[in-house]
Amino acid sequence: MTDNAPPPAMLAKAETLVEALPYLQRYAGATFVVKYGGHAMGDPELARDFAEDVVLLKAVGINPVVVHGGGPQIGSMLKRLGVESRFVDGLRVTDAETAEVAEMVLAGKINKEIVGWIGAAGGRAVGISGKDAGLVVAEKIGGKRAPNPDSGIERHVDLGFVGEPVRVDRKIIDTLSSAGIIPVIAPVGLGVDGHTYNINADTMAGAIAAALGASRLFLLTDVAGVLGKDGALLTDLTPADIGRLREDGTISGGMIPKLDTCVTAVEAGVDAAVILDGRVPHAMLLEIFTRRGAGTLVGRG
Ligand SMILES: Nc1ncnc2c1ncn2[C@@H]1O[C@H](COP(=O)(O)OP(=O)(O)O)[C@@H](O)[C@H]1O
Ligand SMILES: CC(=O)N[C@@H](CCC(=O)OP(=O)(O)O)C(=O)O
């Protein structure tokens, strides 16, 4: 080493950038859909890190598209209004009042909060919901069988205004992305029947990733990834593995729509879907630009 060699800590920073080079080259021009879950949103410092990551992706020529959740935040607003939340297989039973509150919290409060964080990190974002410019047409999903909370007797439950995307018109996303703007999307859609539908945010992100032919779908949540029965992280899964985990009860609750989304997305052509720990600072950058993978990667198998 010569006398004017940089100190080791500086050198390590340069090495990190060099390590990122092949990934920067590989992903230039690619689209990454990032689902930011309600549970991952609690901490303001982590929210700032998340916004910085998204802005950095845009700055290096990747097109990030953010789809956000807000389940816990809808739950607390409903609680303030004296309405109890009920979930069946990770989906909120949504009557007309709940649908109204969900849209207020998702498209009003959380959507604009994320747009603000991205702005503060030096990026430009526009917040929309699936209702804007015909982005997402939703259809009511069929009911499910679930035990009655009081009697425990299993019966058919109508989920109300819970929809699934049946058509995605990508034009508004393309328009924003090509103008240097990061789209931030709330999981609400307009039904062909004119009703507003509450859509699980993972399902929404998967449908958008599929319509965009995204290279990656990242689902940021509040666990390290998919955990096995022994609590160990499952780093790589195929659609067939996921079928087995569902059958033997290893996965439950919100992890069910999350993994269903991963399977649908990779089967529709998305290269890989990754469940990432949103509690880890800069989890997304570490996953994308370093050799250390994180979380659970779902590939085509
Ligand atoms: N096998 C599993 N591994 C990890 N998490 C699981 C598993 N089965 C169920 N879960 C639950 O799924 C949750 C993640 O889904 P969800 O609460 O909907 O997150 P988000 O709000 O981020 O979308 C975890 O917090 C955990 O409680
Ligand atoms: C139908 C349905 O369950 N919709 C979700 C939408 C928000 C969401 O999915 O938020 P997270 O990603 O933070 O869980 C809900 O009402 O909670």
From TrEMBL:
Compartments where found: Cytoplasm
Binding residue positions for substrate: 70-71, 92, 198
Keyword Cytoplasm found: yes
Main location: cytoplasm
GO cellular component terms attached to this protein's record: cytoplasm
Biological process terms in GO annotation: L-arginine biosynthetic process via ornithine
Annotated keywords: Amino-acid biosynthesis, Arginine biosynthesis, ATP-binding, Cytoplasm, Kinase, Nucleotide-binding, Transferase
Residue(s) at site: Transition state stabilizer: 35, 258
UniProt superkingdom: Bacteria
Enzymatic reactions: N-acetyl-L-glutamate + ATP = N-acetyl-L-glutamyl 5-phosphate + ADP
Protein EC: 2.7.2.8
Role description: Catalyzes the ATP-dependent phosphorylation of N-acetyl-L-glutamate.
Name of this chain's protein: Acetylglutamate kinase
Organism of provenance: Sphingomonas gilva
